[in-house]
Amino acid sequence: MIRIAVDAMGGDVGPAVTLPASLAFLEGHPDASVVLVGRPEVLAAHPLHARLQSHDRCQIVAASEIVTMDDPIEIALRRKKNSSMRVAMNQVKDGVAQAAVSAGNTGALMAIARYVLKTMDGIDRPAIATQLPNAAGGATTVLDLGANVDCTEDHLLQFAVMGSALVASITNNPAPSVGLLNIGEEAIKGSEVIKKAGELLRSASNSGDLNFYGNVEGNDIFKGTTDIVVCDGFVGNVALKASEGLASMIGGFIKAEFSRNIFTKLAAIVAYPVLTAFKNRVDHRRYNGAALLGLQGLVFKSHGSADAFAFERALNRAYDAARNNLLERVRERIAHAAPLLVAARVAPVTEGVAAVSSMPVDSTASTAAH
Amino acid sequence: MIRIAVDAMGGDVGPAVTLPASLAFLEGHPDASVVLVGRPEVLAAHPLHARLQSHDRCQIVAASEIVTMDDPIEIALRRKKNSSMRVAMNQVKDGVAQAAVSAGNTGALMAIARYVLKTMDGIDRPAIATQLPNAAGGATTVLDLGANVDCTEDHLLQFAVMGSALVASITNNPAPSVGLLNIGEEAIKGSEVIKKAGELLRSASNSGDLNFYGNVEGNDIFKGTTDIVVCDGFVGNVALKASEGLASMIGGFIKAEFSRNIFTKLAAIVAYPVLTAFKNRVDHRRYNGAALLGLQGLVFKSHGSADAFAFERALNRAYDAARNNLLERVRERIAHAAPLLVAARVAPVTEGVAAVSSMPVDSTASTAAH
């Protein structure tokens, strides 16, 4: 039995999304159970509450507070110790659940996860990893997506190792390929950190810790050149959000062109099945559920604006990760790569070391190079 | 008369693109003339050569060498002193032409432009600026797109000032809005450099040097939240290429869905006018022609894979910039903002100063924080 702790209050919507998604998830997974964490009076007001309360694979756990989408990290972490997010995380820490899922405030979720679960040995900073669809018909796993700005090469190696464990656990491909996100122009190729990271990743590839492809560029994410793309959180976040913005603009243009006049509207009716197939293919909801990697427990982040379909996908991801022992796989790979990670730390770059386990998520800058 | 120097050999294709584009450009602009620079025997082999040679607004200038797409900067700069790229640039330096356009190797173009034309007073590093379509129906100007990695806040301010001059010269909006590209999560908001750049941009806004909107995120580029988005070259390059990759993937999916079977192919015929209108709307060729800003001369970079339609757009942009006195506008704005730029330089951040006028395009890292 895989048990998932659900922050039922998290996200822009809360129980109106998390409750139907949890019920659908339970129906789709006969060997799964759910711990719903939230304010009892709010949960009780939802029409599905009675059904979930009497469900033999659902348990409801009370939490008196809610972390809002714009709560500063300090408030979420220090003042709201009985938040649904925190109590859900405690379920994982106490071994009651194998994974926690929340659609709440990312910064708060990362900080609480770090505080409650702690990072794994050998990991300075947890990373956020998500999947994006690619033209090769699969998905590209990209990390980090915003938990860390100003990464050192050491961090990028950790991301590569953790990303490999994630993809290996989902796809059963034991050696997924890793690309290092860089820019393409000759001689203006990347910063010093990226250059050093490239060397580290090559060493890791030579010692069998990962399957390093080499540098990739922004377009390779959607081409599907590699299974995994590694980058610092600032770059990853911008690339992800720019892509969301572009997809939304293109969707809007398609809609506008088909609604222009009576003829285009008729064309839309004829093209409807094709447009629907296309829409399903690029539906970002299918890719909902980012993994917080590097913690001593599984945590998945749903998009704040997820609907029930999207939130259920995040629950599925958490379930798959727990079932495929993602935690153990990450631990093993990190342990195996430990000599490289240690070597990276005794190298001249020291800022990364100073940042170890400092709380909350910090913004230690990259090294000055030349 | 506006005269444009064209590197006729540059790009993946060379004269087969640059010659038809130049002719079309001349036909569309009765007050423009063109200086075509290239290897005489190669140009002579093109069917349009005779027409261009006898054109009263076209002059052909010989250059014996070609900078290839993968020539290292050193080779392009030091060994190929008679390249078509370099000779085209010399036309601008010598005052023969008001702008140069090349579809060649970006790194080489930037290095040659810096070497031949020099940077303006007050500018440490030139930037590459391009326009991207946005959902608001206009275009967002984004810079830098890859000329500079590891920027300081001082550089970001320079980019903002130069970008404002560019947009003001194209749109006749004297105070285009500027957004600073950042990531959205509370407390993990950006690096130290971004935070400092935000302060600098606010000061510049208060002193009337630019119209600073505040931080924006990746999706704001395509939303059209601001007229200009400023970022370091690494981030800008990744965002641009990721967007290109996504657009290409979506285009491929649409094509695949409409070619699936006889019914979807019929739907494609019915929807053809709508699909064509949509395609025109997102046609990246319309946005071809990036400006190299901060040099003592106008230089525009065409995409290497541009076709004649796209290359003509780049020529149009160069023409518009020359006609609207972009150079003088950038110079004036930089001069006006000089006190702020000087103030930024005497601030603790010193790496930016060390980089002034170093050649070729360097990768001086950002400052270590804490």
Number of strands of chain A: 11
Strand order of the largest sheet of chain A: 3-2-1-4-11-10-5-6-9-7-8
β-strand amount of chain A: 15-25%
Structural class of chain A: alpha/beta
Named at the architecture level, the CATH assignment of the largest domain in chain A is 3-Layer(aba) Sandwich
- For this structure, the CATH topology of the largest domain in chain A is Isopropylmalate Dehydrogenase
Total count of helical runs of at least 4 residues of chain A = 15
Measured between the Cα atoms of the first and last residue of chain A, the distance is: 54 Å
EC number (chains A, B): 2.3.1.274
Organism (chains A, B): Polaromonas jejuensis
Keywords (chains A, B): Acyltransferase, Cytoplasm, Lipid biosynthesis, Lipid metabolism, Phospholipid biosynthesis, Phospholipid metabolism, Transferase
Function (chains A, B): Catalyzes the reversible formation of acyl-phosphate (acyl-PO(4)) from acyl-[acyl-carrier-protein] (acyl-ACP). This enzyme utilizes acyl-ACP as fatty acyl donor, but not acyl-CoA.
Quick summary of this structure?
Chain A has 370 residues and is of the alpha/beta class. Chain A has helices spanning 15-28, 40-44, 49-53, 73-79, 84-93, 106-117, 153-171, 192-206, 218-223, 233-258, 262-282, 308-323, 326-336, 338-346, 351-354, and strands at 2-7, 32-38, 58-62, 99-102, 127-133, 139-143, 177-181, 211-216, 228-230, 290-293, 298-301. Chain A has two domains: 2-117, Isopropylmalate Dehydrogenase, CATH 3.40.718.10; 127-284 and 328-354, Isopropylmalate Dehydrogenase.
